[in-house]
Amino acid sequence: MRIELRHSPEMAARIAELQERDGYVSDISLALRHRPELFGEPVSAYFQEVMKKPSEWSEAERELLAAFVSKLNQCPF
Questions:
Q1: Eight-state DSSP code of residue 21
Q2: Residue 49 resides in a domain
Q3: In sequence order, what are the residues at sequence separation of 6 or more whose Cβ sits closer than 8 angstroms to the Cβ of residue 3?
Q4: Which residues span the domain enclosing 15?
Q5: Would you state the pLDDT for residue 77?
Q6: Would residue 2 count as lying in a domain?
Q7: Has residue 3 been placed in a domain?
Q8: CA dihedral 12, 51, 62, 67 (to 10 degrees)
Q9: Do residues 57 and 68 make contact, with C-beta atoms less than 8 angstroms apart?
Q10: How confident is the model over 29-59, as pLDDT tens digits?
Q11: Is the dihedral of CA 29, 12, 36, 3 positive or negative?
Q12: Count of structural domains, the chain
């Protein structure tokens, strides 16, 4: 089942640009851009905090793990 999100005209134009440039816009990207003030901006800020805070793992290692888990879940990342 796929839920269709209705983005603002400005955001829909930006998504169309990304689609044209990359050939694909992931579902998570669409979700983050839907009402960004409610969901996208806070979640993105949290992700950045998690990826950049001190850790035994480098930021690159955390990115690689995120990409690997996405691949296992058959989620384009």
A1: H
A2: yes
A3: none
A4: 9-72
A5: 60
A6: no
A7: no
A8: -10
A9: no
A10: 888 888 889 989 999 999 889 888 999 999 8
A11: negative
A12: 1
